[in-house]
Amino acid sequence: MSKETDTKVVNNSTSDGSNVQYYTRQEIQAHNMSGDAWLIIHEKVYDITTFMEEHPGGEEVLLEQAGADATESFEDVGHSTDAREMLQQYYIGELHMDDREKESKKEVYVTTSEESRSWTTLFIPAIAVVLVGIMYRYYMMESKSS
Ligand code: HEM
């Protein structure tokens, strides 16, 4: 029983028990022609060779993206849920972990913007407190001299 679990972890298996295949961007890039076309969408790799002619949006757009990351263009078109489900038929593996640098960069940006936001939210009330303090001092001095 425990042996089975161990094997699953080591092999990084999917729910159906098969191994996940990882591909580098370099490997994927070689599949960039109409007779052999792969795409990366959301870090998953698809062999769309047999789908090219069937694509409702035309073969040409797919050929332009073949061998590359088509996530942005796929999302820009606003594909339907049906289109997203169709993707599963062509799934062959995952983008290699070493080639996923974009995602970690995005995380850094998010952290930075959140940090700067919390800075301004603290800074504005601090200025308000200082201003009120100055006004209060001025008011006290005025009332003393009169
Ligand atoms: C394997 C990946 C893809 C699948 C399974 C797919 C599937 C589909 C499907 C089913 C449609 C019909 C409309 C819908 O249901 O949303 C469609 C339309 C379209 N697709 Fe794709 N597509 C893929 C990749 C791409 C990529 C990478 C691009 C852009 C470079 C693209 C551009 C278009 C365009 C321009 C249309 C026509 C939209 C329209 O006329 O309203 N598709 N696609």
UniProtKB/TrEMBL annotation:
Its main location: membrane. It is found in: Membrane. The chain crosses the membrane at residues 119-139. InterPro entries: Cyt_B5-like_heme/steroid-bd (IPR001199), Cyt_B5-like_heme/steroid_sf (IPR036400), Cyt_B5_heme-BS (IPR018506), Cytochrome_b5 (IPR050668). It comes from the Eukaryota. Residues 20-96 form the Cytochrome b5 heme-binding domain. Coiled coil: none annotated. GO terms for molecular function: heme binding; metal ion binding. One of its GO terms (cellular component) is membrane. Keywords: Electron transport, Heme, Iron, Membrane, Metal-binding, Transmembrane, Transmembrane helix, Transport. Belongs to the cytochrome b5 family. This is Cytochrome b5 type B. It comes from Triplophysa rosa.
